[in-house]
Amino acid sequence: MRAQANLVALAVALLLLTGATVVAVSAADDALVAADGDPAERRAANAVADGLVAADAQTTDRANVLNASRVDGLDADALAPPAAGHAVRVRLDGATLVERGTVRGGTTVRRAVLVVSRPETVRLTVDIDNRSTVRRPIPRGVGRATVDVLPGPNTTIPTVRANDRVVMHADAGLNGERAVALYRHEPTTVRVDGARNATGMVVVTYRPPTVEERILEVTVDA
Amino acid sequence: VPDTRALAPVVGKGLEAAIVLLYVAGLATTLHGGVLPEYRAETAVEVSDRTLVSVADRIDAAVPPRGQAVTATRTVDLPDTIAGSTYRIRADDATLSLDHPDPRLSGRVRLALPGRVVSVQGVWASDDPAVVRVTGTSGRVEVTLE
Question: d(Cα A15, Cα A20) in Å, to the nearest integer?
Fold first, then answer.
């Protein structure tokens, strides 16, 4: 009987071993199933998102700063090539900008972006007399302004300065409007060098930016 | 009557040993015959996908911002073998393909390169060092795998 007792112990041991093997194999199976991501889909979504926020993209003013008006006109065909032939959806804070095909599930990547919109135009007018200054400075964040020089009769205005930097100059006198580039990181004061008894007007037009933080979501369903 | 009592433990132990051997043999056959090859194949597919995608990402990232004269060299890490055999990575005009002896492990992806990149050419063998070289001017950039 003692030998039979040994056999029973062996049978139990083998049974336990079988159980352990089955558990191990099913755990490995689960891990393998869970690892079944779709790297191509993720890559396409990342490429589209990177393409939209890149510094030299059509949609941005600078890296990660989207221009609201250009984003609204976004075209699905302008998206990065890895997304070609797949269903794509681009959303900004939940509002769909572009959708091509039907997106069911798929892979989503998110990017925190700033959206700059310039809804209003501000006009600053100054009457020219000797060394006139536009009293209210242009606030920071404005990188472009239009300066319209309207000299009065018998007046020559050779130079327009922004923060003491010469942005417009003509020896024979300025007349008419021109877009000038401003230093964006500080307020700008526009000044006009006029002669004594100068008359006329300078009109500075700019569009102050409104910056909002948004989440850009790109979903690709391959 | 011969005394055979001493035989019983020997037979018993022999039986036990035989059962264990049979069991181990059976288990090894099951694992190697069914489960392991299937796992290997699935893993190889995933490794191939990921290799191709990460190489494409490296090539995309190798192109520097626009500039007068552009030169960049990047090394790329490739797994030497996938499923035990070497493979090749081939670039041909904005498409990157992985050529593996097993067609299920081959694949292709589109590169996401800016418009100023006019050509992407070259072949890498997986067991050689892989270098991506970018040369060009502000309007014309060439990417070579070598």
Answer: 9
Terminal-to-terminal C-alpha distance of chain A: 66
Where helices occur in chain A by DSSP H, the ranges are: 2-34, 39-53, 68-72
Nearest to residue A142, comparing CAs of A99, A220, A194, A204?
A: A204
**At residue B13, does pLDDT exceed 70?**
yes
Does any CB of chain A come closer than 8 Å to the CB of residue B42? yes
Question: In whole angstroms, what is the distance from residue B90 CA to residue B17 CA?
Answer: 55
Q: How far apart are CA A17 and CA B101, in angstroms?
A: 38
Any A CB within 8 A of B65 CB: yes
Give the gap in angstroms from C-alpha B146 to the nearest C-alpha of chain A. Answer: 23
pLDDT tens readout for residues A187-200: 888 888 766 677 88
A132-156 core/surface letters (b: 16 or more CB in 10 A; e: else): bebeebbeebbeebebbbbbeeebb
Q: Is the ipTM value over 0.85, yes or no?
A: no
| Residue A61 vs residues A45, A56, A211, B29: alpha-carbon distances, Å | 21, 8, 12, 64
Residue A138, SS3?
strand
Structure tokens given for A32: 């393998």
pLDDT of residue B138: 84
Count of Cβ atoms closer than 10 Å to residue A19 Cβ: 10
Torsion sign, CA atoms B8, B14, B16, B19: negative
In this prediction, residue A3 carries a pLDDT of 52
Degrees (nearest 5) of the Cα angle A7, A11, A16? 145
Measure CB to CB from residue A3 to each of B8, B43, B65 and give the nearest one: B8
In angstroms, what CA-CA distances link A26 with A15, A31, A99, A201?
Answer: 17, 9, 40, 83
Nearest residue, CB atoms, B112 vs list A7, A56, A80: A80
**Chain A / chain B CB contacts < 8 angstroms:** 61
- B19 with A14: Cβ contact below 8 A: yes
Inspect the interface and report whether the beta carbons of A10 and B60 lie closer than 8 Å. Answer: no
B102 and chain A in contact, CB less than 8 A: no
Report the residue of B4, B47, B49 to disrupt the A interface, i.e. the one with the largest count of A CBs within 10 Å: B49
